Amino acid sequence: MQILSRYFMIKKVLLVSILLILCGKLYSQNGDRDSTVANTVDSLVSYAKSIWYKDTDSVIVLVDYIKQYSEENVYRKGVAQAYNVLGVAHDIKGDYHQSLNAYKSAVDIFKEVGDLKGMASCQYNMGLVLQNDEQFAEALEYVQQAYDYYSSQDLKRDMAMSLMTIGNLYLTNNKPFQDAITKMKESANISVASGDSTMLCYALNLQGDAYIEYENLPDSSIKAFLPSFKYMNAQGNNWSLGFIGVGLSKAYFKKGMLDSALYFNNLALEKYGIINQKLGFRNTYEIRTKILEKSGDYKKAVEAHNMLRLYSDSIYNENRSKQINRMKTEYDTEKKESEIALLSQQATIQSLEIQQKNQWIVIGSVVFVMIGLLALFFIRSSSMQKQRAKTELEQRFLRSQLNPHFVSNALLAVQQFMLKNDATQAGIYLAKFSKLMRQILENSRQEYISVEEEKQMLQDYLDIHKLRLGGAFDFEIEIEDSIDEEVDMIPPMFVQPFVENAIEHGIDSNSTDGLIKIHFRKGGEFIGIDIIDNGKGLKSTSSTDPSHRSLSTTIIRERINLFNQSLQRKIELVLDEITNNEGDVLGSKVHLKVPFS
Fold first, then answer.
1. Distance separating alpha carbons of residues 260 and 250, to the nearest angstrom
2. Coil, strand or helix: which one is 478?
3. Between 569 and 547, whose confidence is greater?
4. How many CA atoms lie within 13 A of 316 on its CB side?
5. CATH number at residue 553
6. How far does Cα 558 stand from its chain's mean position?
7. Span 26-52, mean pLDDT?
8. Tell me, what's the pLDDT at 5?
9. Cβ count near 382 (within 10 Å)
């Protein structure tokens, strides 16, 4: 559906472009050609601005067309305008590197054609991109350059906008708080003098946020936010109302006025819901958790905290993806430089090798024997290192294994939630699943992890299965007081395969009374771990799917053997069934003894 929507949007963009060009050709028969080209480009740019938040990919397609049309008509300013729009599009997509490159190209062309206003606009936008990329000092330089031009031309609205951003950047550059507030107040005064109520409200919003976030002055914050709230509420500006709602809920919470705090928090949720603003949701649920907890409504506080984790994980994943793209670009640049250095190094090595060979010819037979002995020693040492590397590689490979059955079932469960239009449940499930994948990848790189990390991974793993099976079982994870969860370290990923067997082959997915217990206790130089279930037992499990049971048992025993090769205190494994006095099977029990550090 999304692909079809994008197809029709791009088609619409091209149709609009063709109509504008045709209108331009008709006009050029009776008018000035240069003004016709300029009007056409301005119309295309305006259309791009109207859709860049709705369909950024279509904007990028249109930008290519604007550049081509401007170049064909030798209209350099049009090329600069296209690069400016392209910078915004890449900024929206989170590709800051390409965004800055586009803006720099626009600045160079605006400077070439003498369009200082266009140049200042790009410099301001570059400041915003650098601010988003947390390069605050450089961001301040670009915004200050833009303000200097706006001030020289007495462009009131642009001056107010730049002063607000400068004040905000003062805070992130650790400049005195009062200097930042002074810039924001200058912005407000300019907006009042020019009758620009919207820009005034933006300035007041930044002041309100600064007072509560940097100086803990709730009264000053409320005094700034409330006039802006009244105006923005009348205008129906949902983004600003969401921002104001979060700010006022923080300020009233600081004053202990919980009813007012909750009122504005609900307002923020409503307004951010209209525009689906993830970061806004995260900030709203963060203060909402504190308000509900202070009010004593712990059930709703837990719900708010779960939503906070959901949006935090989602934003983390998006930021991680942006960081990876940025690192890839930097890597490509560094790779070319390293290749040049490598060629130089290889030439040096070859020269040294020639000198070394000449020296070996001079050296006598005694030295030759010594070299032979050294070579034998290095060969043996290299062989041992390779064997150790192979063992470590096999350990990491086996440790990172995850039953593909589980991944497939997890994704099928998400599909079921989506088919039922249960987007919230699907979102929670996906957040847990992505978090579990991250834990497994991180833990697989470690020889030892804390008991707390192992417990958290098992908790998330069991939660996902419980959601997938519709509550077919419950579970308990118990850690005795003798264990310091944050200090005691154990080899990772030994418990999960047995938990998987208990779920997939012991617990009946159609039941509702399944139970899995995991118990950690310390004894001597080991931590004992019991995995107990009330399922069908080992024999029944084995007969249900002997090949899978045999494979998983073989893999875990191979892992234990590999670990025991390098451990003085050996890992021990005991598999057993739980029976009653009549010999009936009541479940299975796995006992592990693993060394801790």
1. 10
2. strand
3. 569
4. 10
5. 3.30.565.10
6. 36
7. 73
8. 47
9. 10
d(CA 236, CA 232): 6
pLDDT digits (tens, 9 = 90+) for 118-128: 999 999 999 98
496: nearest Cα among 559, 576, 427:
559
> What is the domain range of residue 162?
2-249
Residue 120 corresponds to which tokens in the numbers above?
Answer: 């200042």
The pLDDT, as a whole number, for residue 403 is: 57
User: What pLDDT does residue 3 have?
Assistant: 43
pTM confidence score: 0.48
Q: Which of 233, 249, 265 is the last residue of a domain?
A: 249
- Would you place residue 345 in the very low, low, confident or very high pLDDT band (cuts 50, 70, 90)? low
Q: Taking phi first (over 0 means left), then psi (-120 to 50 degrees means alpha), and beta for anything else, what does residue 533 get? A: beta
Query: What's the rounded Cα separation, in Å, for the pair 294 and 330?
Result: 46
Q: In this predicted model, what pLDDT tens digit does every residue of 233-244 receive, in sequence order?
A: 888 888 888 889
Single residue among 222, 249, 276 that ends a domain in this structure: 249
Q: How far apart are CA 144 and CA 169, in angstroms?
A: 10
pLDDT in tens, 560-596: 777 777 777 788 888 888 888 887 888 889 999 999 8
Tens-place pLDDT, residues 103-150: 999 999 999 999 999 999 999 999 988 888 888 899 999 999 999 999
Q: b/e per residue, 48-77, with b = 16+ CB within 10 A?
A: beebbeebbebbbbbbebbbebbeebebeb
Instruction: Please answer whether residues 125 and 91 qualify as being in contact, where contact means their C-beta atoms are separated by less than 8 angstroms.
Output: yes
SS3 content of the chain, % helix, strand, coil (to 5): 75, 10, 15
Using CA atoms, how far residue 199 sits from 112, 216, 236, in Å, is 32, 25, 15
Q: Tell me the C-alpha distance between 596 and 442, whole Å.
A: 19
What tokens does 418 get?
């989506």
- Phi, psi angle pair for 518, to nearest 5°: -125, 125
Residue 157 belongs to a domain with what CATH number?
Answer: 1.25.40.10
Partners of 478 in the β-ladder: 519
